[in-house]
Design goal:
Elements: H1 21-39, E1 49-50, E2 56-57, H2 59-75, E3 80-82, H3 87-96, E4 99-107, H4 109-113, E5 120-127, E6 130-138, E7 143-148, E8 152-155, E9 158-160, E10 173-177, H5 183-191, E11 197-199, H6 204-212, E12 218-225, H7 226-238, E13 242-244, E14 258-264, H8 267-281
Parallel strand pairs: 3-4, 10-11, 10-12
Antiparallel strand pairs: 1-2, 4-5, 5-6, 6-7, 7-8, 8-9, 12-14, 13-14
Helix pairs in contact: 1-2, 6-7
Length: 283
């Protein structure tokens, strides 16, 4: 667990108040309670609707977002940017900078609405465009992951540490989500995959957490919104994973509102995976 007064890396000239064990415990508990109260009772009991952008939303998404906004504001009284908010309000909070919560009340709505038991609730405390704290709760597995920037990552109170043994790219398990983009890379992955096995779970937050926990070795995503990656990518990095975008070696640089991701559990595996992907992106 973080020390009783663990400082975080600020994203603005004014240093924030330190994050503490009590803060982390309260935040994780709040996310866990929202998942238990607002998400689980509605699983396989509600139907989904299409939003204007074509994505799915359910009563559970909206109820969980409201509950998170109330619960997290009691812990850190700052603005809450949620996936299910109006675009203009999201942008207003984002452009204001400083500290704010960024939440995905139900990551994996398509799974949830189809009765597939693989989804999560995600919350990150942002300082500017970078998370300083992140929590992801898997209500089906009853697991809670969290991390503090510069202080480490945990699953249910147990530290997540980097593996001590490297594996080769050919032995790796990869979480891949390219959807309809990067068709030439998709063709290579389908017909000449460099890894042992491929999965697409349908939850970005859990994909990052399972990378942190060693259930996945590689990750590739064509583009995640900030609420998809803010908590999960921090947890993975604090557990020792290496991350980048398709073009930037620093995952946290460049446009933050939506970014692609290349990641792997260990340094050598990451370099091999990043090289393989980027070679196929060349004209």
């Amino acid at each position: 667990m973080p020390s009783p007064a663990m400082p975080v890396t600020p994203g603005s000239p004014v240093a924030p108040e330190p994050l503490t064990v009590e803060f982390a415990s309260r935040a994780v508990r709040a996310v866990r309670e929202v998942a238990a109260i607002e998400i689980l009772p509605r699983f396989r009991a509600v139907t989904a609707q299409r939003k204007g952008d074509g994505s799915l939303v359910t009563e559970a998404d909206l109820a969980a977002q409201h509950a998170l906004a109330v619960a997290l504001a009691r812990i850190e009284p700052v603005a809450v940017l949620g996936e299910e908010m109006e675009d203009a309000e999201q942008r207003r909070i984002w452009d204001s900078g400083g500290r704010f919560w960024c939440v995905d009340p139900l990551d994996g709505t398509a799974n949830f609405s189809a009765g597939v038991p693989y989804f999560a609730v995600s919350a990150a405390l942002m300082q500017g465009d970078r998370p300083v704290f992140g929590a992801v709760v898997d209500p089906i597995a009853d697991e809670a992951y969290f991390a503090v920037r510069g202080a480490g990552a945990w699953r249910d109170g147990f530290p997540l540490r980097p593996p001590t043994v490297e594996i080769g790219l050919a032995q790796a398990v990869a979480e891949i989500d390219l959807r309809r983009t990067l068709s030439h890379v998709r063709h290579e992955l389908k017909h000449r995959p460099p890894f042992a096995r491929r999965v697409n779970s349908g939850s970005s937050a859990l994909a990052w957490c399972h990378l942190a926990a060693g259930r996945r070795d590689l990750l590739l995503h064509a583009g995640q919104k900030v609420w998809d990656y803010a908590a999960g990518a921090l947890i993975a990095e604090e557990a020792g994973a290496r991350t980048a975008t398709l073009v930037e070696d620093d995952f946290w640089s460049g446009p933050a509102w939506e970014r692609p991701a290349i990641a792997a559990r260990t340094p050598a595996l990451f370099e091999a995976w990043k090289r393989w992907v980027r070679e196929r992106l060349r004209p």
